[in-house]
Design brief:
By secondary structure, the protein is α/β, with parallel strands linked by helices. It contains 4 helices and 4 strands. It is 37% helix and 19% strand. It is globular.
């Protein structure tokens, strides 16, 4: 069996400050959400956004960590999208950020680094 490599795009979901930061990394496709909106309405908006992404060639979605529950419920029905939850300035002090990123490297790359 021959494996093919696809180049897939990146999208992001988060509040305005988070998306501004992510856009500095070069991510153009993004959904800015208001974190003060009702959860059911927020879930619907996020679901509609995520459903369009596979058709637009997006394979990775960077999500603000505070939206983990909302996106987790919606993304479980979608195939082909990898979800990466990244903390923002407001939640980063709740856990050790260095350990979190090292854990991500171990999970996605399969190697362990010591810094």
């Amino acid at each position: 069996m021959v494996a093919t490599i696809k180049r897939l795009g990146i999208a992001a979901v988060g509040d305005e400050l988070y998306i501004r930061s992510i856009r500095l990394l070069g991510v153009a496709k993004a959904l800015v959400v208001d974190l003060n909106v009702d959860v059911t309405e927020l879930r619907k908006v996020v679901k509609d956004f995520l459903e369009t992404l596979p058709n637009e060639g997006v394979g990775l979605v960077i999500v603000q960590d505070v939206l983990r529950e909302v996106v987790g419920e919606v993304s479980s029905t979608l195939e082909g999208l990898k979800i990466l939850y990244l903390p923002d300035l407001r939640t980063s002090e709740k856990f050790k950020v260095k350990d979190y990123y090292l854990q991500l490297l171990r999970h996605y790359i399969g190697i362990s680094l010591e810094v």
